[in-house]
Design a protein that fits this description.
heterodimer; A: 452 residues; alpha+beta; B: 624 residues; eight-stranded parallel beta barrel; five-stranded antiparallel beta sheet; 18 helices; disordered N terminus
């Protein structure tokens, strides 16, 4: 009987309570009354059954995999139950739950994926939901595969899928190999619903690793960043190399273009607009606004005769949380681009310096996160040492990047500063809204950038 | 073999099967005394007589099997895979005749101590006649013993006594070169046309083999040295007083094989083959790891297998694991050396702890190729040479120097000449963590004499002598090593305020149940109770925390989980142990049961530089 679709109206009823409690639900605090089910499919009938739904709230699409099961719900999936609904015919109640937490159903899902050429996907692997994610839900199968299921889903091919498959075809060794995918229709358009890749079992992300280094530095009384045991510059250098390798492969695998002076003017206009909005919302940014505007204007006034700036597909949201350290070196993941931007924009070629700027900002975050987490105001000594750590690792990253690509990102300081400033503006807005106690990090970055 | 089992009541005294009594109470016989008494008893009982080997003759084809009375069912051709090795320098261990130098009878007298410690195999660096310009590695006869160290019959007695205690013996054999005082070299330089004329690599100029690196870069400028007697240049990969043998000459190969048989006939259990990658030279190559070198090793192995079962060949090839693996020979059959040292592991352990990151170790483990099933790596933290930094990048080497060799005198060629304890600034937690890593990573661990009591070094002595000073036995004169006039000692004992022998010695540590010596012994014992350590596979588990190195060793039903905190700070770690869902881990040292493994990541918290060894019993153990 669970071959049959659920009554959409009844389903929206239970989802209204459940959806806002999910981490990946973006429109927190906003109305969910206008939730509608825009597509519905029975993937596999039987007991339990696997159903797939796309629901629309507030202009966003969310992807759900639903498990349906009769009265007996095993203990292990109780925590994933969304609600109970009657079956239309006989009034019998079934439990509706998040199927990604049911290893029986995720095994079914694994078998339904479309395999990429040359990929061999084993089946019958136990899955485990990764806890830490913000905008997707990932499942680890055994200790070899990871399935990223997109939750908030934009119609069209996902850049993560597009870029990683292109990189894999070029034999890029700096990404986990994509193996299979799932496609669905969203707003009538074929859309990447899930990506299966090789799972880097022994990896940790760069943020965790950088934290161990900063922790080690702060535990010393007065040693410099290059003197302490946990010096991170070697890792930063290798990370710069890995980033450069990925950029080189992306430029070779996918279309490239250039920014001419008029493109730069347009970009500067957008930067000015974002800055104005941020200053209006966070007045603490105002003292640095003039310096930022100067940086944007340098970009906008670049002479038409100047060398055009090469562009290519880029990662788009590169930071220490998007890189994985493994025993085979650094890997880059999550090529989805900046989540706040529309999908079509994210797929346009852009300057690779935008990625570099993102990573440079990330070093600043790593250096100072312990200062904002502390209950007491940071001592000038620690501030100084954090700055030293950030500078040392920013330089090492750029050195590594230069070493691998032959192009030094510091050779175009105007562009790099403008990208960094734009990133800081984004950070200021984000922190003001979500983590006000972290605001000193981007504001400190704004002050230093203004002084340059 | 110990009566004192962790988890029981605190030990005040314990007795083990060798009769060594250990106590925190004073006035208990020292191990040395027990050793002497033990030997006397044996001699009185007439169960053992010293063979007369005054004039040994080479008897190819007749191997003397030291374990001839062991039935086939109990034979153990893979003993070396489970063994804990102990490197002991004859000259530095114990002096029996008061001449200021350790000797073979002195070593024999301390066998009870070594048996008590639980080591399975002793490795003796060269004790051959030698001008002693390279710690005895400059051999001037392959079949004679340096007189200060004893006689051949002393050696045979030592080997027999070790075997009687269940310990094996391997000795160093310098295959690549000899001392320039060796009769072969003297004959070669005097008489180019004579039978030894072609025993070494002679040239009219110093231009050949220019692609070969100079290894001892701080003392040698070239691999060629001019000999004023023969008026030619001779080839040497190491010191200029150590000419390389010419393996192209079949007579050289025969002579070396003959010398190997000589020692095997005396009952030893194998060789550490010194500097094996350099036997042959070939123009246009770096003269390392050449096919002809491997061919000769295959010949040595075939000879050993044919005549001397259960013996082991341990290759010293200071190369990357990808190159070293060739010294095991055929990937399936393993027809060259049984064992080879895994050099990069050691600096990587130091690096990982300084960086508080598991990746230096994880990387080298991931880059380590599979080895034939009948082979084993040898791993070590420290040995008689410097801490070798050839296997780290330039950047890392500068860093290691900065961190571990704060004084220029602490550096040797491209390594660091320190003992383990001073390298770790005598931090007990780190000493334990490093030892736990040594005893749990894949390979057979090799302990270095003195490191089990946390001995110090003396960086003011020349070359690598700083880590070869006399063993500390007691707080008495010369640390109980020798009864000679202190000025006569071959090297002074350590006397500094932290590592001085007055406080840091075997006797004192035997009396203190919390000493590093007792701790090490307990760890060796636990290792030997779990075959997975020696024979098991290795799986890096990764985990949420980059400062925590976690891995599983698995052999049949024996499953051991090792979790190491490389950071000085306490750490949490979440491990994905779903494969072993339902199992209750049992901590190996105390037997404490940990919470059942579930579907969710397994959370552990570990003190700074702490570690856990867990057994993961597949069969549920009933609760009390």
């Amino acid at each position: 009987m669970t071959e049959r679709a659920l009554d959409p109206n009844a389903l929206t009823g239970i989802l209204r309570d459940w959806l806002p409690r999910q981490r990946w639900y973006a429109a927190k605090g906003r109305d969910v009354r206008n939730l509608t089910v825009s597509s519905y499919e029975v993937v596999a009938g039987g007991e339990p059954a696997l159903h797939h739904a796309i629901v629309r709230v507030d202009g966003d699409n969310y992807q759900l995999f639903l498990g349906l099961q009769g009265e007996e719900v095993p203990h292990r999936i109780e925590h994933a139950v969304i609600g109970w609904l009657p079956i239309a015919d006989d009034g019998r109640m079934v439990a509706v739950y998040d199927a990604l937490h049911d290893t029986e159903l995720t095994a079914v899902l694994l078998d339904r994926l479309t395999q990429l050429p040359d990929a061999v996907v084993p089946s019958n692997l136990q899955s485990l939901v990764v806890q830490a994610e913000q905008s997707n839900t990932s499942l680890i199968f055994g200790d070899e595969l990871i399935l990223k299921v997109f939750r908030r889903i934009s119609p069209g091919i996902n850049p993560d899928f597009e870029l990683t498959t292109a990189l894999a075809r070029r034999g890029c060794k700096r990404i986990p190999r994509p193996l299979a995918y799932l496609e669905t229709l969203v707003e009538g358009e074929p859309t990447t619903a899930a990506i299966l890749t090789e799972y880097l079992r022994t990896a940790v992300d760069g943020w965790e690793l950088a934290k161990t280094s900063v922790r080690d530095l702060f535990a010393e009384a007065d040693l410099h960043a290059d003197e302490v045991g946990g010096d991170f510059a070697g890792e930063s250098y290798r990370l710069g190399q890995a980033t450069a390798e990925v950029h080189a492969d992306l430029a070779a695998a996918l279309p490239t273009a250039t920014f001419d002076s008029s493109d730069l003017s347009t970009i500067a206009v957008g930067m000015h607009e974002r800055l104005s909005a941020a200053v209006a919302e966070v007045p603490a940014l105002a003292p640095y606004a003039d310096a930022f505007r100067d940086a944007y204007d340098v970009l906008a006034r670049r002479p038409a005769t100047a060398e055009p700036i090469p562009t290519e597909r880029i990662h788009g949201d590169l930071h220490l949380g998007q890189v994985l350290r493994t025993e085979m070196g650094w890997f880059l993941i999550d090529f989805e681009g900046e989540p706040a931007r529309p999908l079509a924009e994210r797929r346009l070629p852009d300057s690779p310096l935008r990625d570099v700027a993102g990573m440079l900002r990330s070093f600043d975050y790593a250096a100072r996160h312990m200062l904002v987490l502390s209950d007491t105001p940071p001592s000038p000594q620690l501030e100084y040492r954090a700055e030293e750590w950030a500078l040392r690792n920013r330089d090492a990253f750029c050195d590594g990047y230069t070493g691998a690509l032959g192009v030094d990102p510091r050779d175009d300081p105007a562009l790099l500063h403008a990208f960094e400033a734009d990133k800081i503006v984004y950070e200021v807005m984000y922190e003001a809204r979500h983590r006000p106690s972290w605001l000193p990090i981007p504001l400190g970055g704004a002050r230093r950038l203004g002084e340059m | 073999m110990s009566a004192g089992v962790a988890g029981g009541p605190p030990r005040t005294a314990q007795q083990d099967t060798t009769g060594v009594e250990v106590s925190t109470a004073p006035a208990v016989a020292s191990v040395a005394e027990v050793g002497v008494r033990d030997r006397t008893v044996v001699a009185d009982a007439g169960t053992w007589t010293r063979p007369e080997v005054a004039e040994p003759t080479v008897s190819a084809g007749v191997g003397i099997d030291p374990f001839a009375d062991v039935s086939d069912a109990e034979r153990d051709p893979q003993w070396f895979k489970r063994a804990v090795f102990y490197e002991v320098l004859v000259r530095s261990f114990n002096d029996s005749n008061g001449d200021g130098q350790g000797d073979l009878p002195g070593l024999t007298a301390k066998l009870d101590y070594l048996a008590w410690l639980g080591v399975d195999c002793l490795w003796l660096p060269p004790f051959y006649t030698s001008p002693m310009r390279d710690g005895g590695y400059d051999v001037s006869s392959h079949t004679a013993i340096q007189p200060e160290f004893g006689t051949l019959s002393d050696f045979v007695e030592f080997v027999d006594e070790a075997h009687r205690r269940g310990m094996r013996v391997i000795i160093d054999f310098v295959v690549n070169h000899t001392s320039d005082q060796h009769p072969w070299f003297q004959a070669s330089r005097e008489d180019p046309e004579g039978p030894y004329g072609d025993f070494y690599v002679w040239r009219d100029d110093d231009k050949g083999y220019s692609d070969a690196r100079v290894i001892f870069v701080d003392t040698e400028t070239s691999n060629w040295t001019y000999d004023p007697v023969r008026r030619q240049y001779y080839w040497h990969r190491f010191f200029s007083h150590q000419p390389d043998l010419n393996y192209e000459n079949p007579h050289v190969q025969e002579s070396v094989l003959e010398a190997l048989r000589f020692w095997l006939d005396l009952g030893i259990d194998g060789f550490r083959l010194d500097a094996v990658p350099y036997l042959f030279e070939e123009e246009g190559t770096n003269c390392e790891n050449l096919p002809a070198t491997h061919e000769f090793l295959k010949r040595v192995r075939a000879e050993v297998d044919r005549l001397y079962p259960d013996r082991v060949l341990l290759a010293e090839a200071n190369q990357w694991p990808g190159d070293v693996v060739d010294y095991f020979g055929d990937p399936v059959e393993g027809d060259e050396c049984h064992m080879a040292f895994h050099f990069p592991v050691m600096p990587r352990i130091f690096m990982a702890v300084r960086r508080e990151s598991r990746y230096p170790i994880s990387e080298i483990m991931a880059q380590t190729p599979e080895i034939p099933p009948n082979c084993q790596w040898g791993i070590f933290l420290r040995n008689h040479d410097e801490l070798t930094l050839e296997m780290v990048s330039d950047e890392e080497r500068d860093y290691m120097w900065g961190e571990y060799a704060k004084d220029p005198r602490m550096k040797a060629n491209i390594g660091i000449r320190r003992r383990l304890a001073p390298l770790l600034e005598n931090d007990r937690n780190q000493l334990e963590l490093f030892t736990a890593l040594l005893l749990s990573l894949p390979g057979s661990p090799v302990l270095y004499y003195g490191d089990e009591i946390g001995m110090g070094d003396n960086i003011w002595l020349g070359d690598r002598d700083g880590v070869r000073t006399p063993m500390h036995w007691t707080p008495d004169r010369n640390a109980g090593f020798s009864t000679c006039d202190p000025g006569r000692l071959f090297l002074p004992v350590i006397m500094d305020p932290v590592y001085g022998y007055q406080a840091l010695n075997v006797e004192a540590e035997l009396r203190n149940s919390t000493s590093f010596l007792h701790w090490t012994r307990r760890m060796v014992e636990v290792r030997k109770q779990n075959p997975a350590f020696g024979l098991g596979s290795f799986t890096d588990l990764g985990g949420s925390n980059p400062s925590v190195l976690a891995y599983v060793r698995e052999f049949g039903d024996d499953l051991v989980l090792c979790v190491n905190n490389l950071s000085r700070f306490a750490q949490p770690v979440e491990l994905d142990l779903r494969k072993w869902e339902g199992i209750e881990p049992v901590e190996l040292l105390g037997g404490v049961r940990f919470p059942r493994i579930g579907e969710l990541p397994y959370l552990l918290t570990i003190a700074g530089h702490g570690f856990y060894w867990f057994r993961l019993p597949r069969e549920a153990i009933p609760h009390d």
